[in-house]
């Protein structure tokens, strides 16, 4: 629990510094006045201490009883003799006094109107006889000019508070007024230890260790708080504090306005940052797309170069083929022209008179050559004579064999042993359209010749050879061979 100061001049702070280590201590407050405002005992009461209050003014005595129902309140005055005292009561202040001169001064200087009140008077010895020999940790005397009389009614041997605080100035003044009673405390073996500008503090010699606690005034190291209810000093501090608070409030308002402006700028910057972040993200996306497009373009360019190279190769190949085609066409025209020339020469030869004159000689030579082969010729002539009758029957047989795969397989196995018969039957089947094979390759006898030139890309195919006679075809083949040898 923090220590809150209620006293007028920080008396409670000084006492707490010296006695705060004591649990559930005891005090006597003479001239206690209000239970809270300017109270020296209020802070101790909040920390579990209890004590006795002496207050002759009925208003304050009632307030003390209400605020401290578990404490004793003596509604009397103290003096050097018991009896009745005329008290000048100044309502709602702590200036009530039995000294008429002080009352008149308050009236003239401040306009107060004192009221006379007769109160009983006891001495310190008689009022606290029940507490003789008991521990009293502090005793305060604030009786507005009657301090000397109160101390003269004290038996210092029977009642010995550890610390005593006595108001040492004329009421509401800085003029000192303690010389008449200071000797009483010194003779009672009390050591003066501190003056706070209003009160003098004394420590009993048997508790001299407490004197060091009064070496300096209250400060930040006492770790206390102000209640704001401790009279003029607190009013001054409060006013200063409120002035500073007002200034701080104005500063805070100005700071808030500045903070609002900064927050607005921050929001604008945040919005701008968000926009920039989005723009950056879009730019990064565009950059990635651009990089992807660049890669695609590079790949496309590479493919284009490859296609261009292929195209160049194709163009070169096409040009070569075109040149070859032109050369082949030229050669074809040349061979055709040569063929026509030879054919015309042959026709002229056949139509010439020398050819007709030498015909008997040629027949005689042919007859001479055919005599050794007469049996074969006779056989061939016989075959040609019966062929018209045999051919249809043979073709019918071939057709039936070809319609049956098993018979075809057996027929081929047999015919492979007789190649010449197989060739003749094949020619007949091709000629009759039973086998899908170009007739010209077999019929004209050019099939084997074309195979000779199959590996030669420069050879020339025979155009429209079916339009030529067999003899013309043979001449054309001879021309091709001669041309190849010449090249």
Automatic annotation (TrEMBL):
InterPro entries: FkbM_mtfrase (IPR006342), SAM-dependent_MTases_sf (IPR029063). Residues 283-324 form a coiled coil. One of its GO terms (molecular function) is methyltransferase activity. Keywords: Coiled coil, Methyltransferase, Transferase. Residues 29-191 form the Methyltransferase FkbM domain. The keyword Transferase applies. Pfam families: Methyltransf_21. SUPFAM superfamilies: S-adenosyl-L-methionine-dependent methyltransferases. The keyword Nucleus does not apply. GO terms for biological process: methylation. This is FkbM family methyltransferase. It comes from Noviherbaspirillum pedocola. The lineage of its organism: Bacteria, Pseudomonadati, Pseudomonadota, Betaproteobacteria, Burkholderiales.
